Structures are given as C-alpha cells and as structure tokens.
Amino acid sequence: MRAVIQRVSRASVTIEDHVTASIDRGLLILLGIEEADTAEDIDWLCGKITRLRVFPDIEGVMNLSVVETSGELLVVSQFTLHASTKKGNRPSHIRAARPEVAVPLYEAFIHKMEAALGNKVPSGVFGAMMQIELINDGPVTIIIDSKNKE
C-alpha cells in the first residue's frame, strides 16, 4: 500500500462538475493499493499517518499530528501510484490491485482512519474520473509505502 500524503489548507474532489468531498486544514491522502496488500498494511499505514508529525506547534516546528491538531483527512484512490516505467514510456499498472481486491481494502482503510480520528473521513469515488484540487501547505508532501518501511 502506497500513500502520497500532502498537508493542505484545503482540498476537494470534483466528479462531473460536482464537488463530492472536501476538507479544510488537514491531510490529502492519495492511496494506491496493490495485489499483495492486506489488513496488516492498512493497520501499519493508518497508524503511521495518524501519528505523522507534520503540523507546526506553537513555535512553528513540525511537531504535531493530524489527530493532535483536529485536522481533517481526505482519501482518494489512485492506482497509478503503483505504475512502473521500467520498460518503455507507457506506464504499466500490473502491480495495482484489481477492483475486487482494492475496493474492500480502500473502504477498510477509510473506516480505520475514521475510527482513529473519531470523525467521518471524506473520500473520492473508487474508479471514477476525478479532479482533485488542493492547496498544499508548506509545501509538505510525504510518500509512505507499507512494503518499504523507512
């Protein structure tokens, strides 16, 4: 499971000219799911993201988590995070999980995040053509992969 996490002032998802999800200050999470992902990947990644200290404290030092700042989360599925460009110029998405595997994991990830925050977590629509709008705050962008725990 791979996530691109962006600290945002605000972010939204638009589908067919209609804003379907939005947040103010918090984290936009672009989530890529691969065939080998399991509930263990969800647990590890959710814990890592909710404890990630990327928000400034009173002294301006990135020392607070999204939970500690009562920030919001917006989760968007993005299978292209598992693209391989090793051969040629057309990305291969062979590692990305098929919908029958990815959708339950995507939904479980969102539910786990809701439990951690104690709030509803807005999300994109799996498989839909979406326009994501955001104001990256900082900018702060972090990539985390549950298969490469750095």
Question: How would you explain this protein's 3D organization?
Answer:
The structure is a single chain. This protein has 150 residues and is of the alpha+beta class. It has a single domain, classed as D-tyrosyl-trna(Tyr) Deacylase, Chain: A (3-Layer(bba) Sandwich), CATH 3.50.80. Helix content is 21%, strand content 35%. The protein has helices spanning 39-51, 99-117, and strands at residues 2-15, 18-23, 26-32, 55-56, 62-64, 72-77, 131-145. Strands 1, 2, 3, 6 and 7 form a 5-stranded mixed β-sheet that branches. Strands 4-5 form a two-stranded antiparallel ribbon. The longest helix is centred in the last third of the chain and has 19 residues, at 99-117. It starts with a strand and ends in a 5-residue tail after the last strand. The mean pLDDT is 94.
CATH arch. level architecture: 3-Layer(bba) Sandwich
CATH structural class: Alpha Beta
Global mean pLDDT: 94
Oligomer: single chain
Count of strand segments: 7
List low-pLDDT spans. none
Structural class by helix and strand composition:
alpha+beta
Q: In what range is the share of β-strand residues?
A: 35-45%
- Which descriptor suits the 3D outline? globular
| Structural domains: how many | 1
What's the gyration radius in Å? Answer: 15 Å
How far apart lie the N and C ends? 14 Å
CATH homologous superfamily title: D-tyrosyl-tRNA(Tyr) deacylase
Order of helices and strands: EEEHEEEHE
Largest sheet: 5 strands, mixed
CATH third-level topology: D-tyrosyl-trna(Tyr) Deacylase, Chain: A
Question: Helix count?
Answer: 2
Estimated helix fraction: 10-25%
